[in-house]
Amino acid sequence: MIESVPPATETRSLQQAMEELRSYLQHEILGQDILIERMLIALLADGHLLVEGPPGLAKTRAIKTLARGLQGSFQRLQFTPDMLPSDLTGSDIYRPETSSFTFQRGPLFHQLILADEINRAPAKVQSALLEAMAERQISVGNATYPLPPMFMVMATQNPLEHEGTYPLPEAQLDRFMLHVLVDYPDRATLRLIMALARQEAMATHISAAMIQPLTAENMLAARQEVLGLTLVPSVEEYIAALIDATHRPAAYSSQLKSWLRWGASPRAALALERGARARAWLQHRDYVSPEDVQALLPDVLRHRLLLDYSAQAQGVTVADCINEILSRVPAP
Fold first, then answer.
1. Which of 65, 154, 179, 293 is the one with CA 20 to 30 A from 300?
2. Which of 134, 7, 11 is nearest to 21 (CA)?
3. What is the H or E stretch that residue 86 is in?
4. Does 3 reside within a domain?
5. pLDDT digit string (tens) for 229-243?
6. Are residues 89 and 235 in the same domain?
7. Quick count: other Cβ atoms within 10 Å of Cβ 86?
């Protein structure tokens, strides 16, 4: 457990505080360094995260631990086919003593949301979540309620089960900044996980990696620093060209043209720019490099590209398209 300590102060830089948060997460979440980095990038870039992987890979534990490290409010939502929009947003409750209605806030008013198995929810529920993600507000009846300034949805999908699921529409997928794939840890990490589980079961596990939790105010200030990083015109043009290759594939590769049925929206360019800035900031650089862009491109495009039916029949994957784009668009 984290002891109650003061939040980050001016004596500690925001980057140093973020490094301590990353170390704390790595101390608690073993074998998922990519997921940890992507969660921090999404927070710094004011985006949302779609995580896909088999059960039991610490996805829930990761965002719960992040909430503790941020002193943020957290809510886990288990999506089911019988869910209603009011289960997320809240509803107006009639008060007989005052003969009036009072709005009872739902779980979406927390700062960090885990939408577990989001593809099990019906369309109306997904629509309610879409408004929260896109507009940072919730509408109930004739009233609209703003969400917290620091608000992030981390949704999970189980790739192993498809019965009783509702595929996410492209409009909602586009609202996720990153689509991250998580995989099983290696053998050495499995032994460390077993040891950590034993320590926690015996109440001997002490988390010493996190010195001072961050506050929402710290995170909002860090976002401003991220936006202040230098993005030279050549890297900005590189980002535009990578996304343009999904719009006009014939101009870049005849193979790419035969593979792609639909490209990425302008939100992909915005996500790539903000994400690359956040990654550079996490690495204590004051400029964005082409490597930052290349590292995030798969997570930005993975859920935004639609393959042609003939390409799917040939076994072509979205990863093949992304690799083709990276090979055809020259880096500065």
1. 65
2. 7
3. helix 86-89
4. no
5. 999 999 999 999 999
6. no
7. 15
